[in-house]
Automatic annotation (TrEMBL), chain A:
InterPro entries: ABC_transp_permease (IPR001851), LivM-like (IPR043428). This is Branched-chain amino acid ABC transporter permease. PANTHER family: ABC TRANSPORTER ATP-BINDING PROTEIN, HIGH-AFFINITY BRANCHED-CHAIN AMINO ACID TRANSPORT SYSTEM PERMEASE. The lineage of its organism: Archaea, Methanobacteriati, Methanobacteriota, Stenosarchaea group, Halobacteria. The keyword Transmembrane applies. GO terms for cellular component: plasma membrane. It is found in: Cell membrane. It is a multi-pass membrane protein. It comes from the Archaea.
TrEMBL record, chain B:
This is Branched-chain amino acid ABC transporter permease. Belongs to the binding-protein-dependent transport system permease family. LivHM subfamily. It is found in: Cell membrane. The keyword Nucleotide-binding does not apply. CDD domains: TM_PBP1_LivH_like (cd06582). It comes from Haloarcula rubra. Keywords: Amino-acid transport, Cell membrane, Membrane, Transmembrane, Transmembrane helix, Transport. One of its GO terms (cellular component) is plasma membrane. PANTHER family: ABC TRANSPORTER ATP-BINDING PROTEIN, BRANCHED-CHAIN AMINO ACID TRANSPORT SYSTEM PERMEASE PROTEIN LIVH. The chain crosses the membrane at residues 20-38, 45-63, 75-104, 116-134, 162-181, 211-233, 245-269, 281-299.
């Protein structure tokens, strides 16, 4: 019922853009193309990253893990226009849940991810329900409050579960489907693929999440998110239940955070307490904004830039000690001058060279 | 120890714990209430105050960071604590004015989200610049000699003199700001601007300068909080972000723009924390204040003393 108006808008958009340009656009936006780009990107990334940019495969894996987190966060911040400062709760919560599950129930990677994500979604349901009563800064502060609550809970009262300050160290991951050891190396022709087993596993999950995000954002449901960001009261007047959509955007972003957090626990075999601290929420905010809010690939790009500065630039001779400072400077410049982030800037240049369409 | 003295000790300690929150929250609250500006860099001003206090009070031996690499191993003026207490608010007042003009002003018309992002970024820059220059070690800001040691109070017994000093300084400053806002012409303009800035401008009153002063006062309070709070804990580059979250909680629990609200909320949080620590629930003291905050915000979203009108 409430989806009808947006369907109409989408239909109007398509008919407006009919013709060659429209068809090109449609192909660009089609799911197959997005998945194709994602697959090629995931396969090429370690080659470029390791050989030209001084990276290494473990870091490339970490980039994808954080990229999934930022991608989900963008659905909330970029598409729905809600700034949460408490997503560390879902990311770290999922990481802890995944770790504890792997240690005490089953180490099967797929089950571990499912369990971690489930916990993140449940937490988001409750916390979104409570925090979304207020907009703007109240939402930011309420999410921050719940996030910090979880951090201090895990640091001592729940230390029997989380191992407190030392972080959760007993993550134990079984081989995938009982055959493939994620931390081992690939045999046979598969060894030709770039990266290592873990990277390819994380890469496959990344492609799936990109496809999922793309499908959500291009569905009538996702278009409502954008409508809310553009003008909340207008969306309300059209008859949409804005609050329900906001809650769903919150939960969806936590779903991605959950997948990412579980992967993080699998990747590092360890969950640090700092994964729940509010600076983790701050990091994903920076990644998303840096890369470009409101775009599909921007946040992944932002995660790559962030981690590149954190791990590679920090090891450089002169600028090394200043890496965090550099990151802060770049971030502020982006917020002030390029609200669409680095990816938005690149897109603008591409459109300019290709002749502006509109 | 009698029950009465126990209760009084908890209250007094709570007062002291809450005092720092109050100092930060009052500044944050008047800036948020009057200028409608969300300052995530308020913790960085606290950090600035603490380090300025440190370097004005003593000479510090530096071992890490860029400064020692550049040959500067001792840094600081060594003028004593009283000098710090006088100079720091002046410096942070000026910093606040500069921030209003160059950071806040261009962002008044942009969404809350952008304000949060840019001030958050600035806080990161300041904190990390500091860390790069002097390293991340914890320093200790010594208590002033004239206020160290215990003082004998009736009923309670011995109580650290400096902790009492923190309470007194906070009370005086808050009273000063309260009087300024409630009983002067300047305060009248600020309050009118809070209610309806357009109407005030139409009446021919410029709001630019009162806004500058409000931001400056908020920043100065955060700076003083850094100086008086410094001797109570270690001083390191993380203390700013650590204080920011409770300070924001204090503001929203008390009600945005309400000085009385900030005081009430700060004392409530401080007392709860001390109560939990002294009754054997130390592990829960941090969790406790967040639970209290969450409950209050859910039951009374506008804050304890906030009016429904302030809520957008």
């Amino acid at each position: 019922m409430s989806d009808e108006p947006s369907d109409a808008t989408a239909a109007a958009e398509i008919s407006e853009e009919a013709g060659l340009d429209g068809r090109l656009e449609a192909i660009q936006d089609s799911e197959l193309a997005v998945v194709g780009i994602a697959v090629v990107g995931v396969l090429l990334f370690p080659l470029v990253f390791n050989n030209l940019l001084n990276g290494y495969t473990q870091l490339a894996t970490l980039v994808l893990v954080w990229g999934i987190f930022a991608l989900g966060f963008d659905i909330l911040l970029g598409y729905t226009g809600l700034l949460s400062f408490g997503h560390a709760l879902f990311w770290g919560g999922a990481a802890y849940a995944a770790g504890i599950f792997s240690a005490s129930v089953s180490g099967q990677p797929v089950l571990v991810i499912l369990f971690g994500t489930l916990i993140a979604v449940l937490l988001a349901w409750i916390i979104g329900f409570l925090s979304l009563r207020r907009g703007g800064i109240y939402f930011a502060i309420l999410t921050l409050t719940f996030g910090q609550m979880a951090f201090y809970l895990s640091s001592s009262p729940l230390a029997f579960l989380t191992n407190g300050e030392n972080g959760f160290t007993s993550v134990s991951i079984a081989p995938l489907f009982g055959v493939l050891d994620l931390h081992g190396s690939l045999g046979g022709p598969l060894a030709m693929l770039p990266g290592n087993t873990l990277y390819l596993f994380v890469g496959a999950v990344t492609v799936l999440t990109i496809a999922l995000a793309n499908r959500i954002l291009n569905s009538p449901y996702g278009i409502v998110f954008k409508a809310i960001r553009e003008n909340e009261s207008r969306a309300e007047f059209v008859g949409l239940d804005v609050w329900r959509y906001k809650l769903m955007a919150f939960i969806i972003s936590a779903l991605f955070a959950g997948i990412s957090g579980s992967l993080f626990a699998i990747e590092g075999n360890y969950v640090p307490l700092s994964s729940l601290y509010w600076t983790t929420s701050g990091e994903v905010v920076i990644m998303t904004v840096l890369g470009g809010v409101g775009s599909l690939f921007g946040p992944l790009f932002g995660a790559a830039v962030y981690l590149y500065i954190e791990f590679i630039v920090s090891g450089m001779d002169v600028v090394g000690p200043f890496w965090h400072l550099i990151l802060g400077l770049v971030f502020v410049v982006v917020v002030v001058l390029f609200p669409d982030g680095i990816w938005g800037g690149v897109t603008a240049i591409r459109d300019y060279i290709g002749g502006e369409r509109r | 120890m009698s029950l009465l003295s126990q209760i009084l000790t908890i209250l007094l300690n709570g007062l002291q714990q809450g005092a720092i929150y109050v100092l930060l929250a009052v500044g944050l609250s008047i800036i948020l209430g009057t200028l409608k500006f969300v300052n995530f860099a308020h913790g960085a001003l606290y950090l600035l105050g603490a380090y300025l206090g440190l370097f004005i009070t003593t000479e510090v031996q530096l071992t890490n960071g860029m400064l020692p690499e550049w040959g500067i191993t001792t840094f600081g003026l060594g003028l004593g604590f009283l000098a710090a207490l006088l100079i720091v608010p002046l410096v942070t007042f000026v910093v606040g004015i500069v921030m209003e003009r160059f950071v806040a002003k261009p962002f008044y018309d942009r969404p809350d989200t952008d304000q949060i992002l840019v001030t958050f970024g600035l806080a990161v820059i300041f904190q990390e610049a500091l860390r790069a220059l002097i390293g991340g070690d914890s320093q200790s800001l010594p208590q002033p000699a004239w206020a160290s040691g215990p003082i004998a109070l009736p009923i309670i017994g011995n109580f650290p003199r400096w902790r009492l000093g923190v309470i007194v300084i906070t009370a005086l400053l808050v009273l000063f700001v309260y009087a300024l806002v409630e009983y002067t012409d300047f305060g009248l303009i600020v309050r009118a601007g809070t209610m309806d800035s357009e109407m005030v401008r139409l009446l021919g009153i410029r709001l630019d300068r009162p806004y500058l002063v409000v931001f400056g006062i908020g920043a100065a309070l955060a700076g003083i909080a850094g100086v008086v709070g410094g001797p109570l804990a270690n001083v390191n580059p993380n203390i700013g972000t650590e204080q920011l979250v409770p300070a924001f909680l204090t503001v929203v629990i008390g009600g945005v723009g309400k000085i009385e609200g900030a005081v009430l909320a700060g004392l409530l949080l401080g007392t709860l924390q001390v109560l939990l620590i002294q009754t054997g629930f130390a592990a829960w003291n941090r969790v406790g204040i967040y639970v209290l905050a969450a409950v209050i915000l859910l039951v009374r979203p506008q804050g304890l003393l906030g009016s429904e009108v302030d809520v957008e």
